[in-house]
């Protein structure tokens, strides 16, 4: 069963591609489904259209540099005209803030520095639960507010990490409540154990940080500003995980505008119209003479057929399985055309 998706217009290599999308585009889904490719393709097309665009990855498995064939630092840097990129390393972000010291104001410093002795350890040892996600999301919030960028495209971490980011306000609220209770019960002992006179600053910093994350969730809930795009591959396990992600996003009130089905074993020209030169460079799977191709296509068709109800409420985009690894501008432009 084929998804009912209209082919996009033919690519004009001489015209800027551009992107029809809101200010913030986030790609989420199971690990390994192609979120980085989609984010890179969208950002590249946006920048080609003249929009100052930042593509940022919060996925610990950094592959954005490989996909864009550029050295991408941990902080936004221009890598092409109108295109900026950054790869957030959660461990480095954790070491530098918000849990690594600072002024304790909840904005540029560490809301836990006074509470926990100036590092990321809790009183029982080990990292604070969710601290790596909190460190990454703090940097992401800074980038979303950066006036240099008119559009921000985010390659999120795999599903579990993304959901933990959205759960942080409740986690921090609970943490603040427990710390206040502990302070009331232990009195002076609490002051000596958790940083002395900086303790109140630390609790206030936690509250401020939780408020900032709540601002982020409000932004994600605004479909006029944000398009959360779920990426999947046409396989049963990926479909199931995508359903769970969509359900969880719905619980948080975050609307999803687009579902991207990646690596579909179809002739690329059935998904998107290309000019003659581009078409000749693309290879289509042979479902007639290649038994492997035929079997894989049957598996994909069953997965797609079983998930029709999942797709009905969304704008569905198909991206074909290409014969070559998607790296560099040429193939990213092909992917971008499928997403437009």
Q: Would you report the number of β strands?
A: 8
Strand residue percentage: 5-15%
Query: How far from one another are the termini?
Result: 23 Å
H/E element order: EHEHEEHHEHHHEHEHHHHEH
Segments where pLDDT lies below 50 for 5+ residues?
Answer: 1-16, 97-127
Shape: globular
Main beta sheet: strand number and arrangement? Answer: 8 strands, mixed
Describe the structure.
The protein has 340 residues and is an alpha/beta fold. Helix content is 45%, strand content 14%. The protein contains 13 helices and 8 strands. Strand 3 (77-80) and strand 4 (83-87) form a beta hairpin. Helix 1 (35-48) crosses helix 13, helix 3 (90-96) crosses helix 4 and helix 5 packs antiparallel against helix 7. The protein is globular. The model is unreliable at 1-16 and 97-127 (pLDDT under 50).
List the helices and strands and how they pair.
Layout: E1 24-29, H1 35-48, E2 53-57, H2 64-68, E3 77-80, E4 83-87, H3 90-96, H4 131-144, E5 151-155, H5 159-186, H6 188-193, H7 199-220, E6 226-232, H8 236-251, E7 256-264, H9 268-271, H10 276-281, H11 291-306, H12 308-311, E8 315-320, H13 329-339
Helix pairs in contact: 1-13, 3-4, 5-7
